[in-house]
Write a structure and sequence with these properties.
single chain, 90 residues, two-stranded antiparallel sheet, 6 helices, 48% helix
């Protein structure tokens, strides 16, 4: 019986496929095509660098001028983030 330690899981190819960001998303993460995992990482880097997590509820992200067009509102939860960003990837 094989254990997960010696099976060596491979990353899902769908997550590793480079996707092109929309101009709205490119304003935050750059215009180069990157995998979905890297898109998420860059958005979180931007959120942390600009201190956009709501201090009262850290699960919420406050939009600044660059994120507002991406989110379509002033605040989103971290759970909404992936869904909203997916609409800006091709």
């Amino acid at each position: 019986m094989a254990t997960t330690a010696n099976t060596g899981r491979k990353p899902n190819a769908a997550f590793m496929k480079p996707l092109t960001p929309s101009p709205t998303l490119a304003a935050v993460i750059g215009s180069e095509a990157v995998p979905r995992t890297e898109v998420t990482k860059r958005i979180w880097d931007y959120i942390k660098k600009n201190n956009l997590q709501d201090p009262a509820n850290r699960r919420n992200i406050n939009a600044d001028a660059k994120l507002r067009p991406l989110f379509g509102k002033d605040q989103v939860s971290m759970f909404e983030l992936t869904k909203l960003v997916s609409q800006h990837l091709k």
